[in-house]
């Protein structure tokens, strides 16, 4: 099953990108690019979810089939 997790990306002063999520506390990832930060965030999220399931406290996240939020970037 695939889960949908909203991730916030912030550019740090040193030029790196930080990924965090309010929906999945503990999710923190850093990368040299947005794509790298998201890739690392996906791995961290998978490990967090697995660890929580093992403890019997899996996060309540919607499956991807139930979400329809998109972000587009438009040059203006």
Could you characterize what this model shows?
The chain is an alpha+beta fold and 76 residues long. It has a single domain, classed as 2-Layer Sandwich (TTHA1013/TTHA0281-like), CATH 3.30.2390. The protein contains one helix and three strands, in the order βββα. It has one helix at residues 34-54; strands at residues 8-11, 17-20, 28-31. A three-stranded antiparallel beta sheet has the order 1-2-3, covered by helices on one side. Strand 2 and strand 3 form a beta hairpin.
Outline of the structure:
With 76 residues, the chain is α+β, with helices and mostly antiparallel strands. The chain has one helix at residues 34-54, and strands spanning 8-11, 17-20, 28-31.
Give me the secondary-structure topology.
Blueprint: E1 8-11, E2 17-20, E3 28-31, H1 34-54
Antiparallel strand pairs: 1-2, 2-3
Which structural traits does this protein have?
three-stranded antiparallel beta sheet; TTHA1013/TTHA0281-like; 1 helix; 76 residues; alpha+beta; elongated; single chain
